[in-house]
Amino acid sequence: MIRFPMSLRTTLALASLAVFLPASGYAQATYPNKPIHIVVPFASGGSTDVLARRLGEKFAAGWGQPVVVDNRPGAGGTIGADFVAKSAPDGYTLLAGVTGSNAIAQPLYPKLPYDVVKDFAPLSIMVSAPLVLAVNPDVKATTAAEFLALAKSKPDALSFGSPGNGTSMHLTGEMYKQVTGASMVHIPYRGSAAMLTDLMSGQIQSAFGDVLVLMPQIQAGKVRALAVTSKTRLPLLPDVPTLDEAGLPGFEASSWQGLFAPAGTPPDIVEKLGAEVIKAMQSPDIKDFFAAQGFVVQGSTPAAFKAFVASEVNKWTPIVKNSGVQAN
Length: 328
Fold this sequence. Notes:
Layout: H1 6-19, H2 23-30, E1 36-40, H3 47-63, E2 67-71, H4 78-85, E3 93-98, H5 99-108, E4 120-135, H6 144-153, E5 159-162, H7 168-180, E6 185-188, H8 192-201, E7 206-210, H9 211-219, E8 224-228, E9 254-262, H10 267-281, H11 284-292, E10 296-297, H12 302-323
Parallel strand pairs: 1-2, 1-3, 5-6, 5-7
Antiparallel strand pairs: 3-9, 4-7, 4-8, 4-9, 4-10
Helix pairs in contact: 2-10, 5-12, 7-12
């Protein structure tokens, strides 16, 4: 009788056991068994950071493993996204991606170091937020139709501001120009605060702005909301029509945030993560908090989110190319 050393016998026993355990089932049973890192491609304190931390709390409570939020800001979110794209596809390094980093970046950056479709496994959308077409109160337009008529009657006389070149606010303005044929001048700023200051003072006439930024000034009468860019009206602005209602059928643009893993992550882990995101988004504390901030709280299957991301890339690519804007 041949006797193997104890360590070898243990190894052989484990190997024999593995034969009878399907790979996906084994991964599902053991994941997660160490800390999970959620990379936020922006500085701390913003909505993406807050959302990632709230999601991390749900993951930690449900799975008993720590969740670390890792802020890696820069280049419109592409630095953090690239880090995750090149990370091990084991479900322990995830990305809180946004419209810019995971859709618009593809046509915007000529030398983007990752592919927004091929290099990620989409897990679930988390929230989205429409933009608001707002004008300075001195603009002679009280409806979106009047504003469009004014813009068309005076080519390049009206300007629209944005927090920067290539942002969803900028490109929504470019989409508006392309859909309507209006000629307006884009004025980029370094952030929303400076843009809002000039909108209130009349240095610029309009903006497609974030509802959270604009809402206090809309309520104070310092800017006028003409329309929202979502499919349906925004609960925070129930009297403000959509651009679709205002005569631009099918016009829709929103900034969204979702969770991604690196491409090649095992399907069972992808499904487990996706289901956990949906569960978290449906929890009353998260749902109520972000809805009160003007977000549409969502949650989707990995397959549905993958199809959505592909549709977003297809939507924004011609808009970016036709506008001629590029980021280096």
